[in-house]
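Two proteins were folded this term; both appear here.
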Amino acid sequence: MSNVERVAAAIEAATPATDLSSPGEISAGQLVTSVGDIESAVPLSSDSAIVVTRPTAEGEQAARIELPDEVSVGDGVVANDGTVVYAANDDSGDAVAVQTLADGSTRIQTVIGTADSAHEFGYQMDGYHPYQSDTGEVVFVDDSGNVVPVGAPWARDVSGQPVQTGYEIRGDELFQVVTPDASTVYPVVADPTWMWAGPAWGMKLTRAETSRVRDYAAALGMCATFTNKLPKVAIACAVFGSYIVAQANIAQGDSPKTCLFFTAAPIPGVIWRLPC
């Protein structure tokens, strides 16, 4: 078994059960995979960005994700299951691996080879800024309001045990921070996943609407509107109304002021404060 296949096997063993897409085809130095109306181009050069093209409210748009630079890796090699593996330039056992999932999502995994390896990894999207809700969910948002959710972080060691991990936002970069303990057995696999949701997955309020729902009665009305427009989301308005009021008041106190954005999928019932 080659080193690339060993890395792919280690990732498969550590990863929560998720279906991968059918392996794509190599074209112009990248692995191109299509899932429905989403096309993912994963470069074989570690110096290039992943490019995902998908529909938005403004039409088809290409989004770029930079590989984390905390690991010095060589060029990518495609494993049999379609995973693109970038092995470290030393004998640490570190690696970065990129997979396209059956739903079109993009999963970027870091393999932490030893206790001396990097344990935090930064991710950037050109033209996007990361935001984290009060309840921990993360999205990337561009200037046009296009939103890309990021799945909850996870990390597991070679014995299959979970390892503590979480997200931190530093400027325009989303960091996954992995915190091992005395029982952790290396290598450790850690992962964020970009979920390329459709353009109509939530509802954003204007600055005037955000100001208005600071009133509890107006918040209940907005809650009812939200439920009607997004019927897949079940909301207890008496509870959700208070949540709207609290977030609207925080938004008014932000400098500059922010506007509320309600999500329906794939992270239902979460309120975000985004630039107006």
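Next, the second protein.
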Amino acid sequence: MTKFYSEVILYFFIYSVMGWLWETVYCSLKAGKFVYRGFLIGPYCPIYGFGIIMVLYFIEPFHNNLVLLYIFSTIIVTLLEFFTSYFLEKIFHTTWWDYHNVPFNIQGRIALPVSAFWGVGCVLVVRVIHPFVTKIVETLYNSFNIAVPAAILCIMAADTVFSLLNMFSLQKFLLDFHTKLENQSKTLKSSIKVRAQHFNDFIESETIKKNELKEKIKEKRIHEKENLELKLSMRKLRFNEKRILNSFPNMKLKRLSELKNPRDFLLKLDKVKK
């Protein structure tokens, strides 16, 4: 049993590394720059290791039947991909991959063209690659016994714990950032609302002043019109009348007592009339 578990661990590790290489090369070429793929720090993607282990051991009786190998491999890796995506999203509240742009997808977690590709990949691994990997695993086990599998378990376990702690820390950071951003947005909206109110008050105040000014101009024009009509309706002051008015600047007439300065008014009226 020790040999069996050691081989499983070695297979898991080797195919996880191969999966990481595939992901990194493909995504780097697609992005036009180097992209270090994988959730863990080390150069391995455990989902590929789990997928190939399941194909190797769960459907081993069908390895010699190419059609059944392809069908069952496709089903296994598709289910693995779907539930891995689902549980990762539930645990970390994060979408790790999205197939919404791929035809015939389900919730963006899996897609028919992608699953078909994984089926081809599994057949290629089982029928072509695995015989070479088997020799490598046998050599490692014969040379180091359980030392290498034990080291792999320790390294990957430590990597998993460290990566999980980092992920939770990142989640907390993003949550704090989102909260601060929302508070800043609320403060900004409140500030904008206050400024808008001040601006509206200013506009309203200026509108009132403008209307008051219009009213004053209107009243002035009416008053000027009335004065003009009054001037036109009156005769010119005679010489002696002007002299008297000029000679007695403090003179008051009872009928003109309501005027502040009847003398100036009459002189001005006569002057304009000319």
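The longest strand covers residues 105-106. The mean pLDDT is 81. These notes refer to the second protein only.
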